Amino acid sequence: MNADPVSAHDARPSSLQEEFSLLWPGLALAGLVAITARTASSWMLPTVDVPALVLALVIGLAIGQIGREPVVAPGLAICAKTLLKVAVVLLGLRVALQDIAQLGLATLVGLVVMMAMTVAAAVVAARLLSQSSLFGTVAGVATAVCGASAALATASVLPSYKGKEADVLFVILTVNILSTIAMVVYPLLGASLGFGDTQMGVMLGASIHDVAQVIGSAYAVSEQTGNTAVVVKLARVSLLLPVLVIVGYVFGRGNVSGKAPFPWFVLGFLVLCVANTLLSSSASLLPYYLPAHGFLRLAGDWLMLTAIAAIAIRSPVSELLRVPLKSSAIVVLATGVCLGAATLLASLLASLA
């Protein structure tokens, strides 16, 4: 993959203005791709459910030649790294611990086991198919936690290696395709198994990747299914924090070439998660908190979209095409394990009720 861009001048910018002049072309390019993708997803394709993240990826790859221009390289690097970490921090606003506590210990333990099985299956499959355990980790965490956001967050705590960005984009694209299929197929599967509203909500929330896709699929079944699915899904999102810490620790100990720094930004995720929990339960502060909460969540969505656009622009299509097709089998297997474990969890919880 492309090395991190280095300024043509030995000296660092001497002022904030010079720093901005160095970064703004890349920032503007990634932002323009993000705006285009969001616009196309919301307005130009009203009858086709194409996630903006996928459109940003495709557009970014299509204009990748521009990304190799020195003038945009520094700004794109900032988007792909710093803005991405800020977006991961803002994911903490999606989690309120009191909602997750309502699931009960059995559900939470079941989710942890299910997610561990999914990640383990992806890593083992990667090794059996002669692929990097790093790729298996990205694929497994993306499937087990929350799709594209988890893939990007996991990649940010892994050591650099050749083809890393292409691997991440491949996982994001494959996971989105499978998740779109899941929105239609999984409710039919639950109905065929005779699942009630709560069981269906547990299965959908524990197996579908993105929060928006969970909402679209589960509320189409019933309001109770939707409410249950969203809480289960947010519980998975909250587990991104310990997953990132574990991944950063394991790969930072030298088990692979290179070192991964401790993901300090996950502490920001935890701080916002706790703040969201406290403020959302305060009747006196809630009217003031809700506007800020909505704004910051929207900002997080845009930052994540911009980061994906920048990563795609920086990644030549040739690199993505070099990702072996058998890599898709790893993501498919992880998705199958996640679905099977989620279905079993829903059945077991019903029997314990």
Automatic annotation (TrEMBL):
<feature type="transmembrane region" description="Helical">
    <location>
        <begin position="44"/>
        <end position="66"/>
    </location>
</feature>
<feature type="transmembrane region" description="Helical">
    <location>
        <begin position="105"/>
        <end position="128"/>
    </location>
</feature>
<feature type="transmembrane region" description="Helical">
    <location>
        <begin position="20"/>
        <end position="37"/>
    </location>
</feature>
<keyword id="KW-0472">Membrane</keyword>
<keyword id="KW-0812">Transmembrane</keyword>
<keyword id="KW-1133">Transmembrane helix</keyword>
<keyword id="KW-1003">Cell membrane</keyword>
<feature type="transmembrane region" description="Helical">
    <location>
        <begin position="329"/>
        <end position="352"/>
    </location>
</feature>
<feature type="transmembrane region" description="Helical">
    <location>
        <begin position="134"/>
        <end position="156"/>
    </location>
</feature>
<dbReference type="GO" id="GO:0005886">
    <property type="term" value="C:plasma membrane"/>
</dbReference>
<feature type="transmembrane region" description="Helical">
    <location>
        <begin position="298"/>
        <end position="317"/>
    </location>
</feature>
<feature type="transmembrane region" description="Helical">
    <location>
        <begin position="234"/>
        <end position="252"/>
    </location>
</feature>
<comment type="similarity">
    <text>Belongs to the UPF0324 family.</text>
</comment>
<protein>
    <submittedName>
        <fullName>Sulfate exporter family transporter</fullName>
    </submittedName>
</protein>
<feature type="transmembrane region" description="Helical">
    <location>
        <begin position="201"/>
        <end position="222"/>
    </location>
</feature>
<dbReference type="InterPro" id="IPR018383">
    <property type="entry name" value="UPF0324_pro"/>
</dbReference>
<feature type="transmembrane region" description="Helical">
    <location>
        <begin position="168"/>
        <end position="189"/>
    </location>
</feature>
<feature type="transmembrane region" description="Helical">
    <location>
        <begin position="264"/>
        <end position="286"/>
    </location>
</feature>
<dbReference type="Pfam" id="PF03601">
    <property type="entry name" value="Cons_hypoth698"/>
</dbReference>
<feature type="transmembrane region" description="Helical">
    <location>
        <begin position="72"/>
        <end position="93"/>
    </location>
</feature>
